[in-house]
Every structure is written in C-alpha cells, then in structure tokens.
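Q: Predict the assembly, please.
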Amino acid sequence: MCSAKINLVISKLMNYYTICTLINSHDCDEIDFFAKENFASTGVVEFSLTEPQVDKILGERSYSGGDVPTEVIQEVEDVVTQDGVQKQYFFSDTKSAYNFRSWLENTYHYKGIFDSHEYEDWNEQWKKNYKPISVDEWLDVIPEWEKETYHSSAKKQIYIYPGMGFGTGSHETTYLCLKHLIDLVSRGVNLSSCLDFGCGSGILGIAARLFHLYDTIDLYDIDKDALKNTEQNIHLNEMPLESFNLLLPSMRKRIDRKYNLVFANILQNVLLAEAEYLANCLDQHSFLILSGLLEGQEQEVIQKYQALNPKLIHVKTLIKGDWVAVLMEQL
Ligand SMILES: C[S@@+](CC[C@H](N)C(=O)[O-])C[C@H]1O[C@@H](n2cnc3c(N)ncnc32)[C@H](O)[C@@H]1O
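A: Predicted assembly structure:
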C-alpha cells in the first residue's frame, strides 16, 4: 500500500505534457489566460521564431551578446508580427492537455500538437552544455561545479561560472585570445598592466592575472550583467576584487592609461569603431590581441590600426574554425 503511493508520486514527477501551437499574436493574452484558469496549464513558453526564420534573418551575419544592431532587432520583430507566435503550453496531466487542445481547435481553429515528456532536472541539463576545456598543457578552463572534482593536469586552471557574460572558453574567439596570451607568456615576454575591452565573463583578465600580470587589471564592458558575472568569476578564482577595475561606459574616462597587454574580443564593426582608442592605448613594448573576426575580415582591421598607429606591427594570426585572432605589437 505504502509503496504503491510512493510509485504514484514518482510517476507524477516523471512526466509532463505539452500542447504546441502557432497563433496570432493578438490572441496570445486571451489564450494564455484561459489555458491557466480553465485548463490548469502550469506554464507557457513562447518561441517567437523558428530556426529557419532565424537563419533567414541573420543569414551569414553573426552577433554575440550586446552586439546585435537595432535594425536587426527591428527586422526580427517584423517577422514575428507577420508569421505569428509559436507557443508551448505545459500540463501536469493528459486530460487537461487534451481538453485544452480541443478548446483551442473548436474556439480558435488553431491546431495543437500534443507531446508527452519525461521529467528533467533542468539544472543538470544546463550543466551538460559546459565541459572543462583544455587550451593546452598550460591552461584548463573548468566550470564552477567541477572545481573540486575535476582532475586537471594543466599548469594553471581558471574556474568559470557560465552566467550572463560571454566567455566560457568554449568559443573559438575566446580560445584564440587565451592561446595568444599563453604564447606570449611561454616566450617569457615581460607584461604587467592589462585591459580587457569587452570583458564578458572576465575570463581573459582573470587569465592575465593567473599568468602574473600584477598591475591592476581593467575590465571594461557595455553590459552591466557581464560585469556582475565577471565579479562572480573573480571570487570563484579566489582573486582579490581590489586588483581589478570593473568599468562600465559611464566610467570610461578611467581607461585612460597605457597598457602592456590589451585584449579586444568583439566583432569587426566594434573593433573598427573603437580603433582610434584601441590602437593608441598601448605602452612601449606592448601587445594588442584583436579577436572576434571572421576569416577574411582581419586585413581591413590591421590596416586601419596601422594607419592610426604606425608603430604597430602585425606579429601573428591564429585561426580556429571560421574565426581569426590577430596579435599586434608596439615596439
Ligand atoms: C565576444 S564577447 C567577449 C567576452 C570575453 N572577453 C571573451 O573573450 O570571451 C564581447 C563582449 O564585448 C561587449 N561589447 C560589445 N560591444 C562593446 C563596446 N562597444 N564596448 C565595450 N564592450 C562591448 C559585449 O557586451 C560582450 O561582453
């Protein structure tokens, strides 16, 4: 008797049911209301765009957090308005789900697709997307929850909590910056001050500190959520927060000193827009790492930076997948 009761509870936890439908945006509020009030829906998710729609809009353009221009956002909104909204309604029992589907079809003539799902622990699912990354024998990047358990044979380890800031180490553009840094360190180049322009998760500034850049490290981003994630990661790596300056655009005038090492892993349009500043913020015998460039975009960027600062020489380009990262040196 007792075990039968336990099984019932477990089987309720194990499954949930959904109805997927494509509806006009002006019906959304009303259908959401009735789904909850009359059919005991436990939640609703809205997918404004299908994957082919996203491909159609973005084409070969690629954007990262904070970089999508307003005209592209407008384009996305226009498509959503034309083509309707995809909704997924959640139910804890099949009867409610079927009743809702019949009502949707009879009242609004929208087709609903029923699906049954096994219960998933979303926290565990999300973690599966992040694995430790070996940059090479010098450095591993490890997700926060594996800090105590992962056995790393690399000389150094960075721990990252994958939050709102871009930069878990898995993206080619970040990886290439870390590679350039390790190349410089393994050549015994003397570095002290550092700016990470567009710091995201803070991964590059934290790596610089790990490789003994002891001056205060400036971490700059236009996104305040990225800076919150950076702060979280500084703590996670047991580094003193006072040895970093976390800067938003309102504090931009504080990045007016000269640096030995500057990272800028942003997209080409931002690297070009910020060239005047980035090409001229280097001290003597310093290095500039420009990443976030798709193969073929680097020449225009190098030429612009050299035109703005003739003392800059192009040292090396690293490639991974479709992405390139350029190392420049000011003698
Ligand atoms: C590709 S992520 C790089 C994050 C991290 N540095 C890394 O290498 O993984 C680019 C970052 O630049 C920031 N960003 C975008 N435009 C910017 C701008 N004009 N000035 C400063 N930061 C910007 C974004 O918010 C984002 O955090």
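The chain has two domains: 11-119, 133-330. Residues 11-119 form a domain with the Alpha-Beta Plaits fold (CATH 3.30.70.120).
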